[in-house]
Amino acid sequence: MEMPAECDAAPPEYPPAPTAGAKSARHKGRIVTGTPCDAENRARSWFAEHEGMSWKKPEPSEVWRAVEAYLSLAYDGQLPTIVASRLQALRACSEADFYRSSVFELDSSTEPSRYALRLGYRFYPHVKLVIERAPNGTGALFQADTHDRHCCPEPSSPDYSRFRELMDQNQRFASAVEAAWARDGLPTFKQFLRRDIELRARAN
Length: 204
Prior knowledge:
Elements: E1 24-27, E2 30-33, H1 38-49, H2 60-74, H3 81-91, E3 105-106, E4 114-118, E5 128-133, E6 140-145, H4 160-183, H5 189-203
Antiparallel strand pairs: 1-2, 3-4, 4-5, 5-6
C-alpha cells in the first residue's frame, strides 16, 4: 500500500463537522465527539480557553526517559537515519535550549502548548511523541500521537481496508507506549482522563 502524501503533513485546520446531536470540541485540528469523550472534551476546551498560559515543561531527563521507553517498543534494531538524526540534534542541545530545538513540531511559534517529536515506528514513520500542557495549566502530559486519522483514504478507495488495519495497529502501538510511560511514572493524557472520569463518578 502506498502511503498517502497527506500523512506527512499536519492535520487539516478545519476538520469535518460532527454528526448531528453529537457533542464536540476542537483541539489541534481534530473534533472529538460523543458522550464517552466528555472528559476529553472538557480538557480540550480548557486548552483552547487558556491559550498562552505559561506552563512547566518536563525536564530534558524526563523527556529522554519517555524517548527511551518509546524506542524500546518502536524498533528492533538500528534506528532509521532520519530518527537517529533528530535525536542526535536534540542531544546536542543544552538544557536551556532543549525546547528551542528545531526537531520539535510546535502548535504555535509564539506560545506553544504542544511539542511533537516525530519518531515513527517500524510500520509507520509518522507517529509522534507529544508533550503538551496539562489541563491544570501548569504541568505537562505525554501522548503518543498516531498522526493518521487525517489522511485515511475514503471508504471507496481500494486502500481503505488496509489503511484502517494500519490505523488499528498504530493505535495498539500508541497504547503500548503510553502504558509503558505510565508504568515508568510519566504522566499521560489517558491517565488524566481516567482520573477525571473517576472523580466525576464519585461526585455523582
